[in-house]
Amino acid sequence: MDDPSALNHLVVTLLTNVDLMINSLVDSKKKEFNLDHNNKHWIAIKPPVYAFFFHLLHFFKQILEPEMKTFILKSLEKILKYMLPFKKLQKLYLKRMLQIWSDPTTPDKPRILAFLILCRMLVQFPYPFINKCLKGIYIYYINTAKFVSEKTLAVDAFMRNCIVEVYSVDFVSSYQHAFVYIRELAQQLRKAYQTHTRDRYKAIYSFQYLHSIKVWVQLVTKFPTQKELGLLCYPLIQLLHGMICLNTIPAYFPMRLHCVELLNHLANASKVFTNGSFYLLEILSSKELLDKPKPSMAKQFSLKYHIKVPPNIFATRIYQNTIFEQTIFLLTEYLAIFSSSIAFPELCVFVLSSLRKFRKKCSNPIFCKQVKLLLTKIELTVKLIQAKRAQLEFSPDQLASIPKYLCDNNTPLYLYYQDLARSRSKEQDLLSNRSSNVAETPSITDTAKSHPSRSRLGKDSNVTGNPSTVDTVKPRPSLNRARKKTLSMRLVSRVRKHNNSNEDIVQDTNDTLLDTKQ
Fold it and tell me: pTM for this one?
């Protein structure tokens, strides 16, 4: 067909009415379509329906316009029920939907529609299909989650949320797949401990490995009451401890903070002791955080986009401020999780002594002020828990009847943590707004194009109105071109001097040789 408008009209009409046409051929008078293998009408149109789905998939691969992709996906959602007897087509369409969903260059609407179709297929198709879907969505996510930037951060969070939604359909199958992938991560970590090679370290200390653990942590923390997923909490904690202890140099403090943050999420969801405070107190006692900072021109450093500290930022003022703020926040979060526990006074003994030592060694007044405020909140909470605990009458044989948490989350430490989290979220919103405003600021070249009169290299102006008397203004050379010209002239002069000196040397040597021959 040569006319593109006619082809477009034909495709739109076909995809809009294909559901009604198949229903009329099958004589399905019910609102809900139930596939009957004994239906003679369905047996007759089964090969054309298969051909229609197959060619629609081929046509969909050739489409590049996002609007047409969106329309095809919307129409495909209505006719998924006719794909039920075709297992080969189910596999092909699953692969195509995963490709659209995981492609970062695809616009948002086709990606969301592809995920919705994926969820419909997961619900409508029989049991073996869910295993392919769970396996495929995780593998496609891991293959795309290798790098992190400002643009990919929101996309990565969206994909993780999608995976959690898919794995929440069947918790038994989800546990089986999650256990297999967590075991593979543990095997990679064990090989890194056994071999101690650079490639093994890179495989562990990478965003791909970190994001794979984030998926399972998010799944476990979103459904903490599920027994099947609760069994994954212990291996995830062991994995995070192993990642932290694999390499303890200060350059990998960002990776340690990422792991401790995940440990806090697991502790908050399952109320399990994860011992994340020990690694945070090690950071506070490090030499790079207590010594005088190195001079640097860097103005911004975000832990979201780094696993290892760049060399130009290491041990500088911005490095110390960023690491200290995140360490104090995670330590406050960890203690706030157990602030209402009956064992909170014993939990804080080592933390209190370490924070007091840090105050004595640290010479930064801002750091000392924040640590002092945290110490006061911890001490007030310890006194509150001790007072509540003194009112209880119990003996060692009555531990089962003692409440683990003596009060609600209204302790001084927990309220301080909430205020700290609010202030950090406001600061992050301000920084994101500033970055978006900077991105929208027009450049100098755009201003010159929109206002030609302001441009120094504008068009030639005719003042007298006579075409023969046009004054052409020669553009002034830029500083880079002028400097390149002077440097080239100097280089030419030096080469000439060098050649002249070489000619003199050659002439002198020839004269001396003639003298010796004579």
Answer: 0.79
